[in-house]
Design a protein that fits this description.
By secondary structure, the chain is α/β, with parallel strands linked by helices. Helices cover 27% and strands 21% of the residues.
């Protein structure tokens, strides 16, 4: 009898623990008495320049244009857009030229929010289906920096955001929206083998800079690859390879929220529920955006004085957007 009672209590405790760990802070809509401070959009995996022979390049350009026009029309007060890695499908000059032409053609009216670009793994590939090339790391990093800065120089930055340029040979970056740090992480190297698509973040370099920059208040962190074993798809071949060192840093920053990408998991199959496109690294929320190229989806973030609302967004060719109740999370 005691064994049965013990087993029953153990099961109850396990259920309670699972609920506490797995339940988001809130999935309710924000009430009208909360004051919106600012908003921004996050998209990723646009893969501009993907294989021309399959007509995919035209599709990629068109889908990026649709996503940007949807944001421009439906979220006109956004302070910025973040394209969180795999902006291009390979490191060729022609892919960056397509990216430039696509963005500037959408921005003919000069109403597009300012765009921050982040590195993924495809920025180091010669072929979207091949490996990243370790031997040309600095060359491809600096091509990304120079080409995206050229685009940014032609965009209008809101007065409330910073728009300084990355330094040469630097895969990470710090910007501000209002007083909120936006920290962009990117792999310090490309390795061969099973972790070729992973990000490695040097502890004494960019993780130190992250630790020194974001403080204990609200901050947003962006990395294309997700931390290991967090969101769905974040396995040992598709992650931040030194997640343990990132966790050590984030333990000191209780109000950091992280946005990742890379997995291409759609909201229909992996909504913003725990273990899908939402998870945590320690106490830090981790939210993953699907691929614009694959599924025309992204994320919209509303920042209030005491909470943050995150919505998964489906972009449509007629430039309207849809969300679903399980595509929304509110952090208090």
């Amino acid at each position: 009898m005691n064994k049965i009672k013990f087993l029953f209590l153990f099961i109850i405790a396990l259920i309670i623990t699972t609920i506490l760990v797995s339940t988001p802070e809130s999935t309710s809509k924000v009430s009208a008495d909360h004051t919106l401070q600012y908003s921004f959009s996050v998209i990723s995996d646009t893969h501009i320049g993907v294989d021309e022979s399959k007509n995919s390049s035209k599709i990629a350009k068109n889908k990026l244009a649709i996503a940007l026009k949807c944001i421009e029309k439906n979220f006109p007060k956004d302070k910025c857009i973040v394209i969180n890695g795999d902006v291009v499908d390979n490191y060729y000059e022609s892919s960056y030229n397509e990216l430039t032409n696509t963005i500037l053609s959408v921005n003919y009216s000069k109403k597009l929010p300012y765009i921050y670009f982040n590195l993924g793994n495809h920025e180091f590939k010669y072929n979207g289906e091949g490996p990243s090339i370790s031997e040309c790391y600095n060359e491809n990093l600096n091509r990304f920096i120079n080409k995206t800065q050229n685009i940014q120089s032609k965009l209008t930055a809101n007065k409330d955001i910073s728009h300084t340029f990355r330094s040469t040979n630097k895969p990470y970056d710090l910007q501000y929206v209002g007083n909120t740090p936006f920290f962009f992480l990117g792999s310090d190297s490309v390795v061969k083998g099973k972790t070729n698509d992973c990000a490695y973040l040097k502890f004494n370099d960019q993780l130190k800079s992250l630790n020194d920059s974001i403080g204990t208040g609200l901050s947003f962190i962006f990395c294309h690859q997700p931390p290991l074993n967090t969101v769905k798809g974040s396995n040992a071949s598709n992650c931040i390879s030194n997640t343990d060192e990132l966790l050590e840093v984030l333990k000191k920053h209780p109000n950091a929220i992280m946005f990742t990408a890379h997995t291409h998991r759609t909201f229909d199959n992996s909504p913003l529920t725990f273990g899908n496109n939402y998870s945590k690294l320690g106490s830090c929320p981790v939210i993953t955006s699907p691929s614009v190229f694959r599924s025309l989806e992204g994320i919209h973030v509303n920042v209030y004085e005491d909470m943050i609302s995150v919505e998964g967004v489906k972009y449509h060719s007629d430039y309207h957007c849809t969300t679903k109740p399980d595509w929304c999370i509110t952090f208090r």
